[in-house]
Design a protein that fits this description.
The structure is a single chain. By secondary structure, this protein is α/β, with parallel strands linked by helices. It is built from ten helices and eight strands.
Length: 231
């Protein structure tokens, strides 16, 4: 089912922006979708790591692995806390022969740096995904979500977006955790549609039976092996 969702997106858009609150899951979602997209198109798939807000759990940490899976990953080596910007962003966004995914740093501070590309992003061939994890600190109620969303999208100078649900409590999230998080999202979002929901691969089959939205399986690509081994 999720392949059809992604295939439909690829037919309509060429640029995809993943934005939202810090820790909402943008990086893992963009990495997983980039890998899926390489299997659905003959065009090149590029992922632009635009995260300047944290030193760990960034797409660039798995650059070699992503290249092996067919995803061309772009990032700028960061020196201390210097906010370097990837060269060639506009050229990539305008390239008709490639799909571009942009992983944006969390919160208003992280999204501020892509405001300079608003002319290229506020176009009909760009899809903006605002990721919401209702378990995160600034997504605990409707007011918090609206205020955070306004700040994040305003800083990025983005005009339109679609909501993606990513209810999770980390690597050991259960089906019950996801369903409880979805209840929160339905309450918060009201009549605003949720484009799709992301969940760890092992939970997807159960989740698909219990919610109406498409479910896209997510693999944790940036989690260090020692974290797995510590459990």
């Amino acid at each position: 089912m999720y392949q059809q969702v992604l295939d439909d997106l690829l037919k309509k858009y060429k640029n995809f922006v993943f934005i939202g609150e810090a820790g909402s899951g943008k990086t893992e979602i963009s990495l997983s979708l980039a890998i899926y997209m390489t299997k659905l198109t003959d065009k090149e798939v590029h992922l632009l790591d635009m995260d300047q807000t944290k030193p760990n759990f960034r797409a660039r940490d798995v650059a070699n692995e992503m290249e092996e899976k067919g995803v061309r990953l772009h990032y700028h080596e960061q020196i201390l806390d210097t906010p370097n910007v990837i060269p060639g962003v506009k050229e990539n966004l305008k390239n008709p022969n490639a799909y571009i995914l942009m992983d944006i740093g969390g919160g208003a501070l992280g999204s501020h740096m892509i405001g300079q590309f608003h002319n290229e992003l506020n176009t009909k061939d760009t899809k903006v995904f605002y990721i919401i994890n209702p378990y995160r600190p600034w997504s605990q109620n409707l007011d918090d979500i609206q205020v955070t969303m306004q700040k994040v999208l305003g800083s990025a100078r983005l005009k339109s977006f679609s909501i993606v649900g990513n209810p999770n409590l980390g690597m050991h999230t259960t089906v019950e955790d996801i369903l409880e998080g979805m209840d929160k999202l339905y309450e918060y979002c009201g009549e605003t549609p949720i484009e799709f929901v992301c969940a760890l691969e092992e939970n997807c089959s159960e989740i698909e039976k219990k919610i109406k939205e498409p479910v896209i399986p997510i693999t944790l690509n940036t989690l260090p092996k020692w974290m797995y081994n510590s459990y």
